[in-house]
Amino acid sequence: MVKGANVGLAALSEDVGSVMVSLGWSSATGEGDADVSVLLLDGDGKVRSDVDFCFYNNPVAGNGSVQLLGKTPTADGSEDRISFDLDAVPEEIDKVVVAASRYGGSRFGELDDLRLTLADSAGDGLVRFAVEEADEVSAVIFGELYRRSGEWKFRAVGQGYASGLAGLATDYGVDIDDDAAEEDAREQGEQGHEQEQGQEYAEEAPLPEPAGQPTAPARVPAQATGARPDDVPAAPAQDGPAAPAKPARRPRTAKKKVTLPRTTRKSLADNESWRSARLFPVSALKSDRERETRATSVVLSVMAQVPEFGRRLTAGFGAPAGRMETFTEVTLPHGESPRRPDGVVRVERAGKLWTALVETKTNGNALKPDQVQAYMDIAARRGYEAVITLSNDVALEGSPLVDVRIDGRRKHKVALWHLSWAEVVHQAQMLIRHEGVGNAAHAWLLQELLHYLQHENSGCHGFQNMGAAWVPVRRGIDDETLCQGDARALEVIENRERLVRQVCLRLGGELGQKVLPVQRARRGSDPGARRAELADHLCEQGRLNAEIRIEGTPGVLAITADLRTGKLRTSIEVPSAEPGYPLSRVKRLIRRLAEAPADLHIETLVDGPGAGPRGTLERLRPEPADIVPKDGAQITGFRLSLFKGMGSGRGSAETGFIRSVDEAVDRFHAQVVAQVEAPAPRRSRSEEPTG
After folding, report:
1. CB-count burial class (<10 Å; 0-12, 13-18, 19+) for 373
2. How far apart are the first and last CA of the chain?
3. 166, 445, 474, 643: which is deepest, by most CB within 10 A?
4. What are phi and psi of 462, to 5 degrees?
5. pLDDT digits over 77-96, tens only?
6. pTM of the full predicted structure?
7. Strand pairing category for 386-391 and 415-420
């Protein structure tokens, strides 16, 4: 579509009751990012209240009809996905605006390939819109969904705001609250006290308006406009009488939420041999069939009982926001041999049913193409919407786990979706540790689910095997017999990508931050061609390289596995933009790394060709001048690196490669990255709105 064009969704597909909108961009450095927001507007073009403003602190709006699903990696960057249940959007809402914003003085001109895509509930792409001329703006309206004569239409907007999300939100009736930092600090103190009692209350419900008074515009924390808490400007001094004091409380963007504390209370057991009673026991699991049956029942039951969790997992599959029921071991007719899928998910909204069949695998068991094909045929005949596969494998873009035949003669479309156990664990962690759920019982249920999935007997451990090609490729690199174009090298590259995505899910769930793999592919490149190129580099150089971006860190975390030397390197480049003499910069860095390991390697990065001096932290602590360039070259930053032995096995056993990567990333983040995390960039007073 071109800017300003509009189209009716019903003319594009019959499955537009639920749609998925994705906002994407790419960055040459792999570090550029933006925050997505959605505004629900009434007939006057304004939000009705704070609940109609959907952003990272309030990811669900419109009675669950709009949900931010977070980021997913793509071939050349990442996409933010937003699920819209258009049939459930409140009748008072006439228009839904989809926007994104940057913060810290960043502009959209620093990103490439700004785009919006819209897909129907079956996952088929319907609309693509490329945003142009967004160089100097920090917020962009990508598009809007609006009602006309009872139908939903989409308009490609592409409008930029130099004043950022603050200016955009204010235009639509959102009042930016400039005392957010002070109140948030007070509330965090209150939360700390409540966590000691086993619960954390993150946000209060909106205050009711006095009868007979006009409805106040929605007010949101200044952080929602792209500023971080320390970006909020202080109120300017005024002459004359003091301004009226602001109210002690303000409407917030979410209802009360509950999370569980990370630390457990002191046990009342007599000794360590006593085991806590669990809702989902794992001790009796003896076979793969028992593991599959138990895991399916456990996950589906929690999905039905914890609405936030069930909606989080199904929204990306085109399911509506409604009442959910789940079933296991259902028998369905299929010729002379009835089939029994592992589970069924049904969601009811306004008398309409959305149904998905579920096929589950645990441990290293692979999905069977003929089995999945049979479920696709059954779903098509019975008018079901989707088949969901759930296993330890991780699906790659452009490379489906199971190839199925689609009968084009059938009018009804069935979508095939895949979910890894690592994603299920990630979503449970995000809810109970960071975002919160509706009540304490729901939080406890998620805690029990998480304990079950992470237990060694459950079989739900995520990606755990580098494949049959791992050992032959290592040997071929060692004796220099591996040639470019070898299919085994491509298999290793694909499994490396699966491993990196799983590392991001695990680390993101523990930290409560966005963690994504960095893709530096050329714009519009084919994922298969990119992997083939990486496989050729593996054959030539003998190294597996990967990069991940952790929100709030000053650089990209690089992981390099040298298959020739058996060494694993984790590193990060820290920019040095502080003023001062070169030796002062080095000393400040050494002080920040006071708790880092003595074997940490530090390399000075200099402007121009050539490498700067380097040394270990143990040697540099008494002699920091050793890494100051002797030729007077300008210091641009520092590269921090840790090395460890690389596991040789293909699995996740103690000597396995996967476990060695997990341990290296965890150690590097905890002992190095966490110590050099840069504070959020401050904005100037002229860039910030006043609320």
Report:
1. middle
2. 36
3. 166
4. 80, -165
5. 778 999 999 988 999 999 99
6. 0.81
7. parallel
